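Bench notes, afternoon.
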Amino acid sequence: MKITTQMIKELRDATGAGILEAKKILEQVNGDFDMAVDELRKKGAARAAKRADREASEGIVELYTHPGNRLGVMVELNCETDFVARNEQFIALAHDLALHIAASAPRYISKDEVAQEELDRELSVLRDQALAEGRPQAVVDKIIEGRMRKFYEEVCLLEQPFFKDESVTINQLIVDNIRTIGENIRVRRFARYALGEAL
């Protein structure tokens, strides 16, 4: 299949890839747009993994207050340089993360932060539920595994589907931005306040 300039432009607009990279991937997948996007995502994840060990101590603290001032979010998003911290794409990512936290109310950044006692309690409840539903012991573990994935999606920011595009997790969103910005990016911490919530 002949790779046209329009095909390259569309792929670049969708992924932020360079001209040569977009053309090369399109040639590899014989012009299949969706496969090209997937391949670029895989490459971006590999590049992001290489950058994961790099120091990310610059960045910004993004603040969001919901209209009516009944809900507020503060999120610290780190990058490697102050130059990137002033980059419009990086600032937009921080704002999107603050909006997402306001909308989705995660309690932790990643799975690693969930306390073992909470995990044990959740596993115990899920096992009891599956057995009470009369599920055979052989499938209980599979059911629990699926429900634990759902639990992590509810409480861990990086596991949650992005509220603006639920086909992408927050982790994938950050990895995509690492690939296009070219620096390590990480959410260091966040706080979400809702007026009148239990203390």
